[in-house]
Amino acid sequence: MNANALTLNLAPLLAVQGVCKSFRKPDGDELVVLENVNLTLRPGEIVGLLGRSGSGKSTLLRLIAGLDAPTRGVVDYQGAPVAGPARGIAMVFQSFALFPWLTVLENVQLGLEALRLPEAEIRKRSLQAIDLIGLDGFESAYPRELSGGMRQRVGFARALVVHPSILLMDEPFSALDILTAETLRSDFLDLWGEGQLPIRSVLLVTHNIEEAVQMCDRLLIFSTHPGRVVSEIPIDLSHPRSPPDPRFRALVERVYVEMTAKPRGEARTGPKSERFAGTGIGTTLIHVSSNLLQGLIEAVSEPPYNGKADLPVIAEDLHMELDDLFRVGEALQMLRFAEVEGGDIRLTEAGLAFARSESDERKHLFARHLLTYVPLAAHIRRILDERSSHTAPKSRFFDELEDYMAEEAAEQTLRTIISWGRYAETFAYDDQRQVFSLENPA
Ligand SMILES: Nc1ncnc2c1ncn2[C@@H]1O[C@H](COP(=O)(O)OP(=O)(O)O)[C@@H](O)[C@H]1O
Ligand SMILES: [Mg+2]
């Protein structure tokens, strides 16, 4: 089903108009996260919002749901501005904070608490939602008895039980393993296609291009620093969509090129630092092993690429999925060993120097870039340097990260920083005791 054609004439359910959001940084400066964001959501469509991590996607969803207020601009929902938590808009997160002492049914019922419905109605609707999302028979189970995929289904049920008009989904499949994610995605699409879901539109945030092309009627590409919708791509393929289909592949490539396009307008002539700017401690780090980072630098530095490669071409050459390779490229960009732009990856001077170096020199170079460009690494190192024991428990940093991101993202970010820190010998980490330490205190 492609809802596009049917819905073009309907009034939008949601209109985000000129929305800006900034935060005050600890040093007092302003961090502009969203700048002049405009988008609409019409009844009957699934719209994807694709952007790199740290581009402000979660922030935007929070504004839409009324969990936070824009610095400027408005979010209109059914013609009225959103002010405070909006009834009719529900959210599914990357991972759900289910209450461990409550059963599946009780966790789902919580979603209805604010609506003050009669008890029998609450129970009926909750059982319906549980049934719908494939958890029939697990009503009395506790979260610890469920797999990750089942827990995420509880999250979906908790959002669906309120019969929202709009379902906001914030990377809802990204914490699941590939097969589980695939199953849940296709179950969701089947229910949507059959008109079984009690919702009218979906806004799906993801950084997975394949997922976006699989699920959405149109895609909005979000730029980074500050976040803004820079282009829109309609996906006019019928369901079920098949990833090997050449038209599917062509769309994936197009999205991919748009995502890595040069910044438009004034930003094009802006200082080069803008392209790299703005990772804070709260930036989720996607796990990419140091082996992969080195591997890609080496591959790009060698003939026939000699420092610059077309990502889809080199992905095929290396037998890697484009999405996976893109993540490696993003990590190299964060570390300033490469620039990813217009579907190309180009090594920086530092990247080329890295490729020419022997292993010890590589480690030094990596350590220098890690401490300079990844604030979390610098932060951990500083704490370790300052403490007389030169150790710090992982939980300390985990708690800090949780202020910015979901639990799973915090886990992943720490796992990444641990593996990069180990490779660079910037700090050590004891897996058993879960403690960071300095191998060579300054
Ligand atoms: N409450 C906050 N205070 C300060 N900075 C924040 C806050 N929430 C998010 N940020 C910052 O805003 C940027 C965008 O974050 P986020 O919306 O989570 O991005 P995304 O979901 O696209 O990865 C990040 O740099 C993050 O550190
Ligand atoms: Mg996010």
Account of the protein in words:
- The protein has 442 residues and is α/β, with parallel strands linked by helices.
- The longest helix has 18 residues, at 407-424.
- Strands 6-7-8-3-9-10 form a 6-stranded mixed β-sheet, sandwiched between helices.
- The chain folds into 3 domains: 4-259, P-loop containing nucleotide triphosphate hydrolases (Rossmann fold, 3-Layer(aba) Sandwich), CATH 3.40.50.300; 274-355, Winged helix-like DNA-binding domain superfamily/Winged helix DNA-binding domain (Arc Repressor Mutant, subunit A, Orthogonal Bundle); 366-437, no CATH class.
- It has helices spanning 4-7, 57-64, 104-110, 119-132, 148-160, 178-193, 209-215, 246-259, 266-269, 273-276, 290-301, 311-317, 322-334, 349-356, 359-373, 375-386, 394-402, 407-424; strands spanning 14-24, 30-41, 46-50, 72-77, 80-81, 89-92, 166-170, 201-206, 218-223, 228-234, 308-310, 338-341, 344-347, 391-393, 428-430, 435-437.
- Bound molecules: adenosine-5'-diphosphate (ADP) and magnesium ion.
Short synopsis of the structure:
The protein is α/β, with parallel strands linked by helices and 442 residues long. It has helices spanning 4-7, 57-64, 104-110, 119-132, 148-160, 178-193, 209-215, 246-259, 266-269, 273-276, 290-301, 311-317, 322-334, 349-356, 359-373, 375-386, 394-402, 407-424, and strands at residues 14-24, 30-41, 46-50, 72-77, 80-81, 89-92, 166-170, 201-206, 218-223, 228-234, 308-310, 338-341, 344-347, 391-393, 428-430, 435-437.
